[in-house]
Every structure is written in structure tokens, then in C-alpha cells.
């Protein structure tokens, strides 16, 4: 007997709804590295900042690697068996991060947390979809759940930073380990011990492809994290990482041709919507990478501490809530997806326009509230819109592979590579501004103490000038993005649609061309895959 629910039959329905939230929120939040605590981790461990950034990216790679496997495991094991063990391993990995001073252990544990949390998340998607949209209205579910899935980590991230600031950063991981253990206990009590559907064997998984895929993207994560610190291609380690990427990619291509069912078949890259979806995610990446410029202003110029700096993430929440209302009105009424995505990019451009004019040493905390509300709105709209477009017409098998790659593109490759580029440009423009201002000063006219004070002043001025120029660059790039998206066929006008349009304009019958198709189990599976992969972002 199969059970597509999550809890045992004896559990009352009101309690089921409460338990879904109790399980869902911590699983959305759990992570190996809470980014607001990175500075505390670096200081406590006495290591380079790049190692913790690398660990954070390793968690992203772990989520991508898990996606092609999660439905195999979901159909292979009982629900309780899978959830209890996943939650226990998440608790162990969190505890290991809090008790070690070895960066390799932190990187490895963060990778496995990213990998495992998807196994727990997939179990919660379908019950959550039914809870939000009992009538099966998918746009309604996307409009409510995806922005909400950003709100909870934002809140938790701020609390973790505040807690790490007042105590120790390790306590955040200990708290999460305790929560995961508590959830494992609740799973033992309330979850059923039945299968979701017919049993599927784990035989046939392409472990070679999984190994190659993981190593290629971990090498890329290393390159993105350490390239600047190790002076780019002058470092032996960076060259080794590049070599692993190139050799691993070649071996994966060979493996894909030899295996009947490769780990991920990259044939989805021939799909129009996937290609342009990935391009839009890369473009979204430079908008997200530009978000770090705000911290340069708040911490580098205004002198805010990390808690106050992270509190701006809370001001994104009103924007996320506005995005829920907007998406409900727009997507549920089946309006143009192109206009929807253009609205998201426009919001980000407006954020950077405001920041361009606000950059100054007299900038106040209150002046940054409205820009961050707009940024939150743009982020939610683009997370929903681009994901729906890119995965809209893929088959379930192809969707898993595409989602695995797109998670890594959106969360690591896009922001990471653009950050590298912006940091390189910023260092050149900062030095140029500092040289221009210092070259017009006569050092012999000042005492040493006065000269050092002036150096601090012009150093801050050069930081503001370079940041302002970067904001201007982002606005111009944003304009190019709007032009690019405007020319895309986001509404999917296929040849079949053209035939139907011509027939209707000529007054001819469309009988034989139009057919109503009932929602089958495969379509439900497709929606579940799409939902789970989008939530991972």
C-alpha cells in the first residue's frame, strides 16, 4: 500500500498542517555556513576568508548533486526511514562544523548538508503545495511559497548573526543540530512507514558521472573563491583547479556517451528556454553580486557592525511580501511572463540607480530602507519568473539535470564570477582615484599625523568613487539586460501555436489540433520536481 502523504493516518489534519511548518522552516534554514557569521568564523579559526566562502559554495554544489538522485531514493525507501536518517545526518554534520577548527572538515560537512537537505525538502513539497493551493493552482503556490522560502532564511540569517555576535558563531550550528535531532524524534512519532509509490532500485545510478560532476564544480568553486587571493593564474593551485575542470569535463562528456543513463544528460542545453533561462540567471548573478557593494558602504564607509549591516536583509522582507501580492495578481491571471520578468529586472536597476545617488559619507540607515525593499521585490520576482520559464516545458528526467546545473549557475557561478570581475575592476578604479587625489597633495606641507589623517580621508573618498562607478556600470548593464529579455520569446510561441493562430484568423476549425489533456501522475511529478528545485535556490 502506498501513501503519498507525509504523516500517519491517525494524525489529525490540523496537527498535520502545524507539523509541516515545524519541519519545513528549519529545513529551509539549515546550512553549514551562515554567511553573516563568516567574519566571526575567520577570526575564530585564524584562517582565510576564502576557505569559508569555498565551504558555502560547496553546500550549493551539494544541493545540485543531490537533485538527480532524490526521486530514486524517495521511491526506494520508506518515508520515515528516509526522513529520520537524513535529519540525523544533518544534525551530525552541523555538530561537526561547530566542534572543529579544520577548514577541510567545514567544507566537507557543508557539502553534505547541502546534499542531504534536499532529501528532506522533497518530502515536504507536495504536502505544502496541497496546503497552499488545495485546488491545484500552481501559480498560486509559486507566488506564495517561493517568496516565503526567502523570508524565513533572511530572518534566521539575521538571528544567527546576532546570536554569533553576542556569543560564539559555533552556537548557531549547535542550535541547528539540536533542532534537527528534535525533528528526527518527531518524524519517528508522527510519520508513516509506507512507500510513496512503486519501489525503484538504486541500480543503474551513474556513480562515475556523479564523481566527475562533483569534482568539476568543486574545482570551479575553489577557483571562484581563491582566484583573487592567489593572484589568479599565477598560482599553482588555481592552475590545478582549472586542469581538474577541463579534464573532468572531457571525461564527463566521454562518460555521457558511454552510459545509457548518465548522471546528468546535458541534452537539455539544446532547449530554447533552458539556454536563455541560464543566460538570465547569469545576468541575475551580476545584480546579486552587486549587492555586496552595499556592505562596502555600510561597513567600510559608515562603520556599521555586521549585525546592523545584516539587518538590511530584514528590510527586503516587505519587498518579498509585495512580490507575493504582485505574483498572485499576475501569474494566477496568466499574464505575460516576459513583462513579469522585465518587472523584476527593472526593480533591480531602480535599486542600483537609487544607490548611485545615495553613496556618500552622510548616508543614513533610514535612507537605505526603500532601496532594500525594492531589491527584495526584484529578487523574489526573478527567482519565480526565470525558474518557471527555464523549466516550463522540460520532461521530468531532463528537468532534474537542468535544475541541478541551474542551481549552481544561479547561486555560485553567476554571483561568484561577477564578483571576481567587480573586485578586479574595483581594485583598479580605487587605485586610480587614490592616485589622482594623492598626486595633487604636497606631503611636505603636512605633519606626519595630519598626513595620515588625510590618507584615511582620501582612501574613503576613493572607495566611494569606485563604488559609485560600479553602480553606474551595473545600471548600464541592466539596460542591456532589459533589451535582451525584450527580444526573447518568453511566452513560448511554438510552431503549433502559429498554426492555431493562422487557422483562427482565417475562421477555420481547429478540431484535431486542440486537445484537452487530464493531469496525470507524470505531470504531478513534474510539478514536484520544479517546486523542489526552485526552493533549493
UniProtKB/TrEMBL annotation:
Stored InterPro entries: MFS_trans_sf
Highest taxon listed in the record's lineage: Bacteria
MF terms (GO), sorted A to Z: transmembrane transporter activity
GO cellular component: plasma membrane
Name the UniProt record assigns to this protein: Major Facilitator Superfamily transporter
SUPFAM superfamilies found in the cross-reference section: MFS general substrate transporter
PANTHER family, sorted: MAJOR FACILITATOR SUPERFAMILY, TRANSPORT PROTEIN
Localization per Swiss-Prot or TrEMBL: Membrane
Annotated transmembrane regions: 15-34, 54-71, 78-97, 103-132, 144-165, 171-192, 204-225, 237-254, 274-292, 312-332, 339-357, 369-391, 398-418, 470-490
Main location: membrane
Keywords: Membrane, Transmembrane, Transmembrane helix
Membrane topology: Multi-pass membrane protein
